[in-house]
Design a protein that fits this description.
The chain has nine helices and no strands. With about 180 residues, it is an all-alpha fold. The chain folds into two domains: about 35 residues, no CATH class; about 130 residues.
Length: about 180
């Protein structure tokens, strides 16, 4: 009985080796094909290269519509959509200052939603706490001179949430003072 050789799975290194052999004009053709493949790829390229306008306001609008919808218009919360928009932006841009801006904006929207419409549920507050923690981590990756303005906004979120239920206000305080113990 002969034993079959197991075929090696392809990995990024294999792709990278092939890409390095492609001539520039063929590489441009390949990237055009990837661009046309799906809307997410188009969004990635437009965000990465800031085609047309600054992409940050567009992502903020997605977050606001998802985390602070207008209930009068029967819109619903779409936490995953907001999370996905931040992840897509982060992959395309890799800029801690702008990522911190989006993450803090997300929590501000969620906080304002609660202050506008009243108490939500535990899953909602867990998502906000997770994003608040990611926001703090991202702020701490930014240059020191950028951190103070972000820290001020994080503190304002914490202060405004002190009476919100589900342990949310306490959770914000724990995260904030753990990261910024000098306050």
């Amino acid at each position: 009985m002969t034993k079959k050789k197991k075929q090696k799975d392809s990995c990024w290194d294999d792709i990278e080796t092939s890409i390095k052999k492609i001539e520039k004009n063929h590489l441009v053709d390949l990237l055009r094909d990837v661009y046309r493949l799906c809307p997410e790829n188009k969004d990635f390229f437009h965000t990465r290269f800031s085609i047309n306008d600054d992409p940050l306001p567009r992502y903020k609008k997605i977050i606001q519509d998802a985390i602070h919808p207008y209930l009068e218009d029967h819109e619903t919360l779409e936490i995953e959509k907001a999370n996905d928009s931040i992840n897509r932006y982060s992959k395309a841009v890799d800029n801690p200052i702008r990522e911190a801006e989006l993450r803090i904006f997300y929590v501000e929207c969620g906080n304002n939603f609660t202050l506008s419409y009243g108490d939500i549920d535990e899953d909602f507050y867990d998502a906000l706490l997770d994003m608040y923690e990611y926001a703090i981590e991202t702020v701490l990756e930014t240059p020191k001179e950028e951190q103070k303005a972000f820290q001020k906004r994080l503190k304002a979120i914490m202060d405004s949430a002190s009476h919100i239920g589900w342990g949310y206000g306490d959770g914000l305080g724990d995260l904030y003072y753990e990261a910024f113990s000098e306050d």
